[in-house]
Structures are given as C-alpha cells and as structure tokens.
Protein 1
Amino acid sequence: MLKKPFLQAACSHALRTKLFFVTALCFSLLSSPLIAEPKNQPKGSKTMTSLNASGQEMTNQEQNVLSLIQKMTSNFEGGNLDIVMSTYEKDAAIMFEPGTAVTDSNVSKQIFAEFKALNPKFSYSGHEVIVAGDIALHIAPWSMHGQTPDGQDVTETGLSVAVLRHQENGEWKMVIDNPHGNHLLNK
C-alpha cells in the first residue's frame, strides 16, 4: 500500500505531467460489445446478439461481467464515485500506475476523485471476457481523452486487464484492475 506522503507526491507529479496515470481509469469501458445480426433473421428485424472476441454469442455470465465494467466506466465519467467503488471488492488491487497496487478503498476513491478533474471520456476497440467458474478475466484495449483544469488536452491509450469474482449475491466485482496491461511491452 502506498504511504500518504508518497501518494500525495505521486498524485502531484501525475497532475504536473498531464496526469499520465489517468490511464488507470481504463476500465471503464463505455463501448458496446461487438454486435452482429443472427443468420436467417427476418427482413426488417432489429434483434441483435452480443458477441465475444471469438465471434461467438456471449453467455449470460460474460454479459454480466461486461455490464459491470461498463457500469464502472459510465459512473466514473459521470462522477458517481460511490457506484464506481461498488464495482470492486473491498480489498481490490487497483493499479493506478504500473507496478504499484493500491488496496485501500479510501485511497482508491481519493485517486479516482483527483483523476475525475480531467473529465475523461473512454472508448474501447473491443472486449474479451473469459469466465471460469466464479472467476472472470476482462481484457480491453482503450483510449481516453480528457482535459486538464488549465485546458490542456490529454490523450492516453492502454490495455485494461481486470480479474473479477462472482459474489454470493450473484453479482460480479473486480478483484484486480490493471489498466496498464501493456506496460511490459513498452519497455
């Protein structure tokens, strides 16, 4: 866990460098899943099917995982940080910078609030969801556009990798959220 002086210095440094670490907000994932019309669909029908990255119809659980990711993203963009935090387990590890996980939910909420100052908007070029029992993996390339309080444009891209766990109440929640999944490739 980051100590308060380090966290304050890291956040201050991030703001001075156009909030490089905003990429942590990858999540958020507003784009729709891939959509395709089923074969033999009646002419004029508007029924659509959600597809996974392999082009197969998504299962209900895969759709539920994707819905949670989209919920997190849209609420982050809207500034609803209590809802954002509700998409994570209590001690979830969130990578606001490569190599450093934050597991204190109060610190995570504070960092999200600071990043919200950019008024970020996210888009995704696709989503892959893999479910194995009560564990799921979500992978999505993302891009973010925002603006610093002094009017400078900020654009970032990355690869979001999130691990989720199926809860006893039937919901999914993130356990690990790493929007810097591609950082090893950039070394």
Note: The chain is about 25% helix and 35% strand.
Protein 2
Amino acid sequence: MIARGSLWLPLGILMLLAALSFWVERSVQGTAQDSPAVETDPEGIMENFEALRTDPAGRPRYRLSAKKLRHYSGSRLTELESPHFVQLDAVSGDVSAAARQATISASGDEVDLRGNVVVERAARPDQPAMTLRTAQLLVFPDLDLLRAPGAVAIQDGSQTLHAGAMEYDSQRRVIKLSGRVQARYIPGKG
C-alpha cells in the first residue's frame, strides 16, 4: 500500500503543474488579445529629428525633419508630427512640403502629409517661386512625384490656380490638374 501511495504524489504534482501552465498560457493570450493598448503603443519615439537620404553617388536627395516621430512595430508605419520634407535638386531647384502630420509607409516609398499642407518650389531664373496649399498630399520620393487627391490652390507668380486634384512630377516640372480647374492670370506680374 505504501508503494502505491508514493506513485500518486508525483503524478498529482505533475497534474497540478500541467493545469497551472495551461492557466498561465490562457491568461497571457487573453490579455494580449483583449488589450488594445498593445496595438497602439509606439515601439519607438524620437523628437526633433532630421534625416537625410542620398543617392548611390552620395549626393543628398531629400531631407525629412519633424517635431516628433512615432514608429509602430505591428503595422510597421511611422507617424510624424509637424513634418517638413525637402526634395533636394541643384539643377531644377528644391521643393519643400510641410504639414501638421504625416504617415510613412513601411517601405518608406510613400509619405502621406495631412493637415494644412504647404508645398513651396524654389524660384529659378526662368520660373518664379510656386506655393501650393491642400489638405492632403502623397509624396513618392523615389519617383519624384507629389499627388494631391483633393482640392488644391496654387500661387505661381502671375497666376492663381484652383483644382479638384493635382499631380506634380518634379523631374519634368510638370503639374497635372484635374477636376474643376479655375485659373486667374495677372498680366505684368511675376
């Protein structure tokens, strides 16, 4: 009888440990699924930063700065507060864009600027400076492309333009306006 009793004690301890580990696993999984804070907490935060990207030859291509950067590991998105993006080009002139906030895609090939977006193109000897205002602007840095899916207002020396949407190819310096387009030309100005 003593030999039989000694078998039940280790077996009872193993059963208790198995039940305890099952309970711990379930409670940890339940907490991770029920807690929305885990999904919305940023993985990293940076304040007052500036980043410079160069081409393969080492020439500066564009610069991005912001008041605050938050990176989220779950979605791999990056959010910026008060971003300022400058596309650097010694030949055709710099183009800068500023907004209240922005989101950068996981691959870094798309920047979504939102809230009081202002784009400024530097003046050149053959072209006056240009200012563009819109609520949202999509920037594709590697393609040298800016796209405003909503209403835009453009001031360019002697003309003022309003359109339903816009696409700007900074390499070719071509602006495509779509939707309802209104233009006002002031002769002798600019």
Note: The CA atoms of residues 18 and 84 lie 56 Å apart.
Protein 3
Amino acid sequence: MPRLTRVGALIGPITMATAALAHQNVQNPAVLARMDNMTALARQVEILGTMARGETAFDAEAANSALDRISGQANQIIDLFEAPETDPQSEARAGIWENFADFSGRAQELELLAARLAGSVEDRGSLVTALRRVGASCSGCHEDYRLNRD
C-alpha cells in the first residue's frame, strides 16, 4: 500500500474522531472556535484524501473547491490564535504564542499554498501532489505547535 494511502487511511478517521471527542468538554468559546476551524479544515483535507485513496470517485471540481475552502479556513487561523486562550481540552502548545511570528507565517503559507493549488487539480496525479503539499504544511505546523494527546 503506498505511503500516502496508509497515512491518509489512518489520519482522517483519527482526526475526525479525536476532534469530536475533544470538543465535548471545551469551556472556553475562543478555544472552541479554534477547534471548530481546524476541524472544518480537516474535513476538507479528508475530502481530498478519500479521492486520492480511491475511496470516493475523483471529482476535480470538488477537489478544487476543497482546496479553496482550506485556504479560507487557513485565513482565519491567525485571528483565532492571536489571544493565548487556554482550556484543558486545547491541543495548542504555548509555543504558538512564544513564537507567534513563525506560527502566523505558517498559517499564511498554508493559506497561499491552498489558494495557488485551488483550480490546479485536473486528475488524480495532480490531486495527490496537491494533497502531499497541503499535508506537509499541516504536519509541519502540528509537529511544532500541537500537543499530541495520543
């Protein structure tokens, strides 16, 4: 099984299940808004992933729309994380606010990357390329700025 397929098959369902559980007990509305934004972004990545893995039919229009929505969700990240809000359910590391310039730069990079890729997906090959690029952007930021609760 190709690496993209193995990783995607694990990440999508785990991300969605984790998000649903994490949101249940969130008390801070600012943290909940951040989590909701990230969940909405993850849903779009999952749309791309299911197509890339062949679990759903390839649909260039849906893939390009998902990339456009990823760009829109990424556009909100800086504002949502600007205040160092906390909640026991939050997965945000303190490093976000200790190095907010780097964090903000990564959010902007994801926004611009997804915007550039939106409209470029024409076939499964270009979808896989776009998904890898978006996934690398997400993963890099998560490695540095997201708590691993597993």
Note: The chain has six helices and no strands.
